[in-house]
């Protein structure tokens, strides 16, 4: 039995590190054919399928023997079985050097594969020294022995070139014998084996050990390992051949670069074990599968030449992934797969402490079979399709199915547990609930939904609610800031495209600046209702990760003036993914805070989120002037004045920041089960007049902020060409974001309707000033009025949102007075969140109509005055509507806001 003490057993450190070193050497031997197979392929003239069979045969043996070897390790002790495996594998490896034919090599490869069976032996042996609280980290360290594959790829090519492939087999065999001897000298029997020897108790029979494998969930669990480990082994074997075939590298360079994938995919397994101990294996597996879907999709796309029949003749351009981007993507894939490997094996000794050998052996066998089957499939796909990237297409399909299956199984088990009132007892992997050995308690989930949430309860809020709410707020704010940065990145990029050779008209440039606003606003309509359906944590994670698509796309598209305008239109629309995130982010945060702090919380989330626009407009003009990513980022473009620019940095800059935000959202945020509702439950807002009135008002505030952010850089460049306005473009969005974040408490104290009315008055004055100074050709005065407009819109963004909860509470009380007060409160909160999201969607169209209005006005009249006069009339209508419907003597919020007690607010630290 595993010790229940939190301290490892005596000799644990020696056992762990000796086993890790031994497994590293075993893994180096197990994958030896990935290098010597290249020499054999040339010598014997093997086809791709024959080569795939040769390098996969050791993987087959190592996989099939894992169950039996794992059981023997349970029965006879892992120490002696481990040493025996190394000796037998060394003999087979040495004899390989005497094989002369393909058939003899296949037989030798079967014997070499015994080295791969050491994994299940080591898992059984090491796990018996550690308590369950530390087994994830311990097994993660042991599993890092996968780095042996990199050892082979680094060293074997040099030996093979200098001495021949036979020498590689002989030297590796000697190294394995030496390791076996040292392993026996520095380790001792595991605690269970020592206890069994002293008590004279016989080891369980093979039949009893294998009986646990009848449980279907064990086999389902093994399928996860088929991808995270099987695909790792397959790629470790296949990459040298892939790099030589696709990029024309020699065997030495290909072997060393393949190690660039193998090393992180092995060493970071240690970190995966630590994360599994701390946050739970379920969360780690979600991240693993989600990122793997993205990276395998990118790797799947083959080099392609497009010919588009344009107006002025055929337009030809080519897309392909260069060597450096390929290596970076493979590094990311290897990293997340290493986390997943540790997460899978975290559960085995916890659920099956008395059958670690059998269960670990089966899971390892299925994973190892992936390492055998997949290289064969890679070779066959190459022979059939003639497309190198077909191997990644197969992996994309495999991991997409795994992610979908796991997610739907998890949600199904969560719903079942909620119905039984056992939400807190759902294990880390809910689809595993109900299996495991008798008397073994499954661990509670460390990260997951919160069933009970009462922010209006003062005791609950003070003792438990506020820390959780603030953590979710700050992570949401960071992700929202990135969303705004990606959404508005075209506002700077389009102004520089003509300078680097893109022959786009003024109308085309304004369309590129406006389209992100159009798509972002449209997506907000849908995003506004998705948080109650999917949960804030999951949706924030997915929506943040989606920003990688336009970020990478922009980075590649701007590097060539031959890139068609159609591609830029598509990328501009994809930037709208960032704009859509605002609706879901605000709806999610609105659930966490009590009414007294809701305005301030929403102001911080939105205000600092809006700061992403200013951050982008400040950083992008700077980073495009330097080779920020070196060779990884591509070549510079030469502008008309001879300046060297790296426009691709405008997209690539955000990639690492987005990855950080995605991980933070998944590991740091929560789902509120009380916020769960269907679209039908939320659709009641469409029948309420005030929903549409607030859409009009919020368009006057946020529509102004986002529209001016998108349109001002290009507008100022056209109407004041003598001024480099891009240097100042970030100031307006900065002031607007800060004013929103800093003034939420003003609306909480004095009333959102009163503040909104005066905001519209100031905006009318600012627009009038813009018209005056534009006619006077004074950039300084014009820019001052623009800044005043930004500040006023920021204050109004906070004040209009503060109005929504009070309006919806009155509406719900009026429409369903028969409901209990608690039910009316929950309904009002759900509708408030939906209205906040929906109004933000409608208002976001400002990012489209303001730049488009400027462009149309200039095209038709030669100036922007017509557009500005239209905006002035619109703000006047907003002021009148606010007065008569909400803040004036007949307004529904008049008495509420004037009866508000004066109290000292404690704003969240900004």
Can you give a write-up of this model?
The longest helix is centred in the last third of the chain and has 37 residues. 74% of the residues lie in helices and 2% in strands. It is built from 41 helices and four strands. Helix 4 runs antiparallel to helix 5. With 910 residues, it is an all-alpha fold. It is globular and about 95 Å long. The strands form two sheets. It has a two-stranded antiparallel ribbon with strand order 1-2. A two-stranded antiparallel sheet has the order 3-4.
Sum up the structure in keywords.
910 residues; mainly alpha; two-stranded antiparallel sheet; globular; disordered C terminus
Distance between the termini: 52 Å
Q: What's the overall geometry?
A: globular
Beta content: under 5%
Oligomer: single chain
By DSSP, the count of extended strands is 4
Low-confidence stretches: 1-5, 423-447, 901-910
The largest sheet has its strands arranged as: 1-2
Largest sheet: 2 strands, antiparallel
Structural class by sheet pairing and helices: mainly alpha
> Counting H and I runs of at least 4 residues, what is the number of helices?
41
Please state the average pLDDT score: 75
Helix content: over 70%
Radius of gyration: 31 Å
